[in-house]
Design goal:
CATH class: Alpha Beta
Strand content: 35-45%
Structural class: alpha+beta
CATH topology: Protein Transport Mog1p, Chain A
Radius of gyration: 17 Å
CATH architecture: 3-Layer(aba) Sandwich
Length: 256
């Protein structure tokens, strides 16, 4: 399993996993109230942090619970609808954000890159769909993804795993879900925070990643959360036996 990455806006990452498949991971999902109280809280790259790098970064992100951080106003910006009938997905996004389709040249019989929404300031929210191997579990799926990041330091510069979670109870149905939090450093030396969330529905994995510079992460988190939670999946694009309707997927946890 290896990971491939290309740069968007020279600061943000579009990633692709490959383990007999390429898993293209792009801009977020399920925001859980992460916040950054100040730029100083993230000064320096993860490479400069002493032994407890993971604990330090996690404490920085989760420590303030939103206290003292600004947030972008999602209600002040008109929202537009993105629809992709080929993959049976619909999402809303701010009218000022750019929609990018087919920005990766990587092709895979298992994985498709659907769309990325780019903020003018840089943060991204993206969506991809992967085929889930019946022999895998959420734990092995996440472990392989993390190992792929670690094995590609030239792609994931200064990769630091912050946290993973596969013990997530879906809000609807029984679809298992996972989250991966990690930091990287881009070519300009900026520390990036990445939060990948995926849900396993039948033989499909619907996943998003929110990527932003540390100074922007908390600011754009409410918008990223809004975009991610607006996802609607057409059930006729999923496994047999699903009702012929559109399902709203809060936090990408879908009843399908």
């Amino acid at each position: 399993m290896f990971k491939i990455i290309s740069k968007a806006n020279n600061d943000f990452m579009i990633t692709a996993h490959h383990n007999a498949r390429i898993l293209i991971t792009l801009g977020i999902l399920v925001m859980i109230g992460l916040s950054v109280s100040s730029n100083e809280a993230f000064a320096g790259s993860s490479a400069n942090r002493p032994g407890g790098a993971i604990a330090s970064i996690l404490a920085d992100i989760l420590g303030n619970n939103g206290t003292g951080s600004a947030s972008a106003n999602t209600t002040s910006s008109p929202m537009l609808m993105y629809s992709n009938s080929s993959y049976g997905v619909n999402m809303t996004y701010p009218a000022t954000w750019k929609v990018v389709n087919n920005i990766s040249a990587i092709n895979s019989s298992r994985t498709v890159y659907v769309v990325e929404f780019d903020s003018p300031a840089g943060p991204t929210v993206s969506l991809g769909i992967d085929t889930f191997n019946a022999t895998e579990t959420p734990d092995t799926y996440v472990a392989e993804s993390v190992q792929a990041y670690r094995n590609n330091p030239s792609v994931y510069q200064n990769f630091t795993l912050i946290k993973t979670n596969t013990d997530i109870n879906p809000m609807l149905g029984q679809s298992p879900s996972y989250t991966i939090w990690y930091s990287t450093v881009n070519d300009n030396g900026n520390l990036l925070l990445n939060k990948e969330f995926g849900t396993l529905i039948g033989t499909k994995v619907y996943f998003t990643t929110y990527t932003a510079r540390t100074a922007d992460f908390a600011l754009y988190e409410p918008i990223a959360d809004h975009v991610a939670q607006s996802l609607v999946i057409s059930t006729n694009q999923t496994s047999a036996g699903a009702p012929p309707s559109l399902v709203n997927c809060p936090d990408l946890r879908c009843l399908i």
